[in-house]
Structures are given as structure tokens and as C-alpha cells.
């Protein structure tokens, strides 16, 4: 019973170690799962569209294009559309278009298209005194409560004329806002005539679905309201928008800067996320919301459809390409999304994910995990088996209730994962505990002491006692890559023959350099040097053994390829990963009085295994720690920098073994290492593009199989270059797999 409790306690700890860091780290996979749940909630309970909503969309649709020609229309026609909407009593008119260039459909452009110079001159005289399309539109804008669209870009540009006062209270919100270098706005005369300018940009998630919408962004040092927010301001005749950040009056954050809390525009105080973003609760597309521009121009729209409303003018024709994806629909006109933002604000239907939500979800996950694990241990299997899915169903039902009735986004998926993961860990542990009691007598460890150790222990029988000692050892851990792919299709006899052909030269290479084989683990080999007796210069001998193992594997691949070719088949080449480490280990006879093995334990051994795993990340075969490199510096090493392997909090210097001491003094290697070290200097200095170029050049110049290493490094450097240098950037590579 005590053994069963200990095993179960270990299962609880193991499950907690695997599950709870997700709640702290918040990886992208968890965010994707959470978005899927929240999107499903919206699909189950979308916001019902209210025909009395304060918005309408006047769209350039297929009917309008058929009547008035392809887009862009002459500015005079847009001025006519604007005048019609103003005359119908629109409270605010927002254009989801960027009028950055001069009117391309105006009279002057049409005159330039006349081929006959004399006719062109005569027509030019006739229209010389007529106002341009931009002048006509600017005049219409000056009379209407109009807002024009602005696109923020990463290109530096001149600032746009300010239309609304953006007043900030509390901490500076700028560091928390989505930032751009500049903006592309309407022509200056149009911008000066309009009452508002608003950003049309979207910041969709990586799956291109628009879930969070920033109400305020930043172009350089200039704060820019969104098109929807600016249209709302103009509709109320407000001169300013107030941004309330942390540590403002009534917004205490205990001295910490936590970003934006709320935005006030006229009668509306809008709670936001720290980046000034809101989450609309979408409704399905509705024909009542959308009005054809043709109907407005031809006077076929009732006044009560326009009067007192915020009108968004944009592209509804699919061919114009302004489409977005929302949680409800994969394709909707972008201008409809602007309207839905205002509708959600006006109706109080914005969704909220409070800043305390992740903490609450973590607490719920921990409580549910402990509850299910306790129930699993004390209750009958059927009871615990029913409790887990019922708990998950309850979490989802509660989260959906809060979404539907309160507009709160609380994630039930992470606590559910804690329940499911805990249940699986606990159930498997209890099953193993029950079955192990029946078969522990028949268990065999299947471990053998290497012949070299047997010889030495024969001379020192006092070492055949339980326990051991701490010694500095060089540890080698090797593993065969893609063993499943190589062994696929082999019979049991062929597989045994292959393993013998592989392990025999690997073992010989280790024993010839006075190493000790600790154990074989399938296709993996664990070996060490400097025990039970002292071995002079043992790090150097371990490095030599690793090089011999590399050569032996190459010879094996040649033999297998030749044998396969003679029979008309193909042989998949074998590859290995190998880790070398140097440090203190506990070494001695491990086991019981009746059965024991001479073996090693300790962090040094674990790190050697992790270094073998690191070789996969670097796409090279032999990776050694800095301690091994420093003990045998005259070999051909390539500095790979510092990595933090799984299970280690401190980073480790690692090196790839390129060759032996003879290669180390060759001109080609010296040139190679200089280029490699220069690439590494660029990376350590945060010049990622230069480092990526260096890696790309090396990938094209170094011999096989080394280009793979530089392809990996180039990908990493270019990824860092895309992310941009961060204040807390570290050159340590955190490896996520063993």
C-alpha cells in the first residue's frame, strides 16, 4: 500500500509538472485552443442584429458598379453621395477608403487621354474654369460630419493634421499601443476638410480572424483613433477622446504600468484591454444593415434609414477585395466590421476578458486537478471515470453561461486539460501499480556490465559492494536517429542483424579508448571514462572514441548501401546523435545484494543525454559541453553558443565536433572557423540579419553534412530578425525537446 501511495504521489507531481506550466507560460497552442472555444461560443450565441441599430453601411456593391462603372469613381460622384447622406440627416459619415492620390477619374485625367492635340486643347479650355473632383469633394466634406480613412504603415511618413484631441490620464499608453512608423492618409486638402481621420487597420490573429480590434494605435509618436472610434466621436460632436491608463484617477495599479483601462468618447466609456483593444460580439451579416450606394444616389432610401445614424461607406462588392474573417463568418466586408464595433459599443455588447482571468483559470485548474486526483485514489473506478467528463462539462457550461449572460470570456479548456491530464496520469499509475505487484518477481533489468569493467573489478573485488563514490567522469550518450524508419519492413532476424552490425563497432570504438559501457537502451549507448580506475586524459579519449564512432557509422552505411544495391533495393542510411559531458557523477554498484550493476547517476549524465537531444536541434551528430571542449581544446570545434536544455535552469556552452587534431590545423578549417566565429559574433551582438547572411554563406561553402547546421542557424536568426530585438533579449537558445 505504501508503494502504491508513493507511486501515485509521483504521478501527481509528474502530471502537475507537465500541466501547470501551461497556465504560466501561456503557449500559442493554448491560445489557439482558447480562441477556438470563444469562437464556438460566439457561433452558438451570436449578438442578435437590431434593425434599430445606430449604424448603417452604404456600400459600393455590384449593383452600384454596374450603374456607375468600375471603382474608383470620380470624386464628384462621391461628393454627391456625401451630400445625399448629409441631406438625409446622417449623424456621422465614415469612409472606409483611402483617398491618397489625386482624382484619377476627374476631367483633367480624361483630357490627357484625348489623342488629338487640337481637340485636347479645346476641351481643356472648356473645363479650365470648372472645379476639380478633389475640390468638389473637399467642399462637400467641409459641410458634412465626415471621417476619412487612414492606413498605418511601417514606412516613415509626414504627420497627418490632427482632428481630435487625444487626452491621456495616468501612465503613458504609447508603449502598449500597436505601433507603426507612419501613415498613408487622404490628400491634404481632403484631410483638412474632413472633421475626422481614423485608422482602418486590422490586427488579426495569426489565423487571420479579427477577434480583437484596437481603438487607438500609434503612428510614430502620433496617437491615431480607429475609424469606428473617430466616427463615434464625430457623431457626438465631441472635440476630444480621453484615454485612461493605469494609475489614473480611479484606475490604481499599485504603481505598475499595466496599459490602457478605458477610453471615453462623449457619452460612452469603453472598457478596453491593455493595448486599447476591444472584443466585439459579432452578429451575422444582415441585409438591413447594408444599403446600396446606387439607391442613395438615386434617392430611393427612406430618411429614417439614415437620419441620426453613423454611416460607414465602403466596399461591399466581393471583387474589390476588402474582406475579413470573423468568428462567425469566413468572409465579410471589412466595412461591416467597423459598423459592428460601433454596434457592440452602443449596445453594451462588447466581450471582456478581464486581466484576472488567467489567474482564476489557473486556480480552477489546480483545484479541479487535485479534486479529480483525490477522487481517483479513493473512489471506485466507475465513479472517478464519470466524475472527469462531468467536471469538464460543468466547466464548459459555466463558461458559456458567463459568456452569454455577462459577456465574459473565461477559458474552460485549460482547467479541462488539467482534469483530463490528471485523470490519465492517475489512472495509468494505479493500473501499473496493480499489475506490477503480480509480475515484479519476473522483472529483469536486462543490464550487463561491460567486459572492461569486469576485468578491472576482478582486480578490485572490494568495489562489489552496494553504494559508490563521486568521481569526475567523461560521459558519452549516443542514440540512433530515425530508428523506426530504418527498421520498418525488417524481419526480426534482419533487425537483430542490423543492431549487431551497428552496436559492435560502436562498442569497439569505446572500449579501444578505455571507456566503459554502462548500458544499452535499445539503439542508445551510455558509456563513461575514468571509473572504476583512473584513466589519464579521459576527456580526450572520449572525443577520439566519438570520432571513431562517426567513421564506423559511415563505413556501416557504405556496406549496407552496397548490399542493398546488389539485391536491387535501397537502404536508408543510419545517423546518430551523440552527447559528451564532463563532470562529477555518482558511480558504483546500483541494485540489491542479489543483483546489481556497475552504473553511473547524476546531473552530468542527464546533461550528456540532453546534449544528444540538442544535436537534433542543431542538425549535427556530435555535441559536447564547454567542459569537454576546455579539456580537449586541440580538436576541431565549432562554438554553438549557449543553450538551455529541458530540465536545466542554467544555460550550457555547447560545441560541435568537426574533426580531429590534424584537421584543427588545416587552412580550410581555420577559414571555416573564422567565418563561423564571425557569424556567432553578429548573433551575440543582436545583428540577426548579418548573422543569417553569414549562416547562409557558410551553408553554401562547407562540406557535407555541415550545411544542415547552418540552415538551422539561418532559420533561427531570420526568425529573430523578424521578431526584432527585445530589451530582455538573451542569446541563450531554449531547447523545447529532449
What's this model, at a glance?
With 738 residues, the protein is of the alpha/beta class. The protein is built from 24 helices and 27 strands. Helices cover 46% and strands 20% of the residues.
Topology (elements, then pairings):
Blueprint: H1 2-25, H2 28-44, E1 55-60, H3 62-68, H4 75-87, E2 92-95, H5 107-112, H6 117-127, H7 133-143, E3 146-153, E4 165-169, E5 179-180, E6 182-184, H8 188-193, E7 196-199, E8 213-214, E9 216-219, E10 222-225, H9 227-236, E11 240-245, E12 260-265, E13 268-271, E14 277-278, E15 290-292, H10 293-297, E16 310-315, E17 323-324, E18 332-333, H11 334-347, H12 357-378, H13 381-406, H14 413-439, H15 451-459, E19 467-481, H16 483-487, H17 492-512, E20 516-521, E21 524-529, H18 538-566, E22 575-591, E23 596-601, H19 603-618, E24 622-625, H20 626-631, E25 636-644, E26 652-659, H21 661-664, H22 667-684, H23 688-701, H24 707-723, E27 733-734
Parallel strand pairs: 1-15, 1-16, 2-3, 2-16, 3-7, 4-11, 5-9, 22-24, 25-27
Antiparallel strand pairs: 3-6, 8-14, 9-10, 11-12, 12-13, 17-18, 19-21, 19-22, 20-21, 22-23, 24-26, 25-26
Domain Guanylate cyclase: 474-612
Transmembrane segments: 7-25, 356-378, 385-403, 415-433
Protein name: Adenylate/guanylate cyclase domain-containing protein
